[in-house]
Amino acid sequence: MDSIIGLIGGFGDVFTPTNLLYVLIGALIGTAVGVLPGLGSAMAVALLLPITFTLDPLAALVMFAGIYFGGLFGDAISGILMNTPGNSTAIAGSIEGHRMAKLGRAPQALATSAIGAFIGGMIATVLVVFFAPTLADLATKFGPGEYFALALFAFIATSVVVSDSVLKGMAALLIGLVLAMIGTDQVSGSQRFTFGNVALFDGVSIVVITVAMLAVGEVIYIASRIGRPDDRSLVPSKGRPFLTRAEFREALPAWLRGTAFGVPFGVIPAGGAEVPTFLSYGAEQRLDRRRKFPMFGKGAIRGVAGPEAAGNSTAGTAMGALLALGLPTSATAAMLLAAFQQYGM
């Protein structure tokens, strides 16, 4: 009962014209910054932090929430339209999303991403309101053994389900582990594989790897086609920017399954939504193989719906861990923690 009263009171404080305007402004600005490849939602919050210095605490916090979730949707926009995700959390949804865009179904892919973000974020937020103490207790029970088991499960599951070949997946996993080992060890403070280069002390950023793999290759290909007939002409969009009833019914189970993947990972102080998004993508891919007419590889709408819902539900429960424990489980949550401290919270 206390949770319901608090929830209603929170709605009463937020649902004012002024605060709703700040939410809208934050969502628009966050989307505009998040859509730029290499920046993402965390950078959007960091860049826009000074804007809120003159606002009252409630207006500033609701604006930050708009920036947070708007930045996540901006990450998906660049991934779907340009195959260059703004952040690593949007990689899984961009695989099928970009294929849909190349078939002229970009509006449907973006609509699927937006609705999935709303469903995943709302369900996670409601769960945080009613089960914040339980989620906090779950997070505090994670020790070294649980972290090791989670990391091992995430590595193997992601490398196997994303790639068509187990050997290719494991090879990609080993390459990723080698790149992750570069930099300063968080436990001992010693430098690993930096070769005395100060620029490598902070390691290799996932944004650098993402942009290098997806964006640079595209740029080099386009540059090599200068003066030649271009076989990559602009693909006109087909259909309307919303989903039909059939498309909605097809995407709904994936939205719910993706939310189920993302909710537990958001509260665990392990950081990031990459694991649940790829697990959701892998689950949808395996379910698609059982269908009479598999769609994965041809622009499957479920391949967009599941990862997008997983990423935003992880962000929703990450707010629960931040508010209940003061633990930022992602880079964006860490920026929000700095904003809370600015107002003495």
From TrEMBL:
Coiled-coil segments on the chain, per record: none
Domain DUF112 as annotated: residue spans: 20-345
One Pfam family from the record: TctA
Domain of life: Bacteria
Record field: transmembrane: 20-49, 61-82, 109-135, 147-163, 169-187, 199-223, 318-340
InterPro entries: DUF112_TM
Record's keyword terms, sorted: Membrane, Transmembrane, Transmembrane helix
Record-linked PANTHER family: TRICARBOXYLIC TRANSPORT PROTEIN
UniProt name for this protein: TctA family transporter
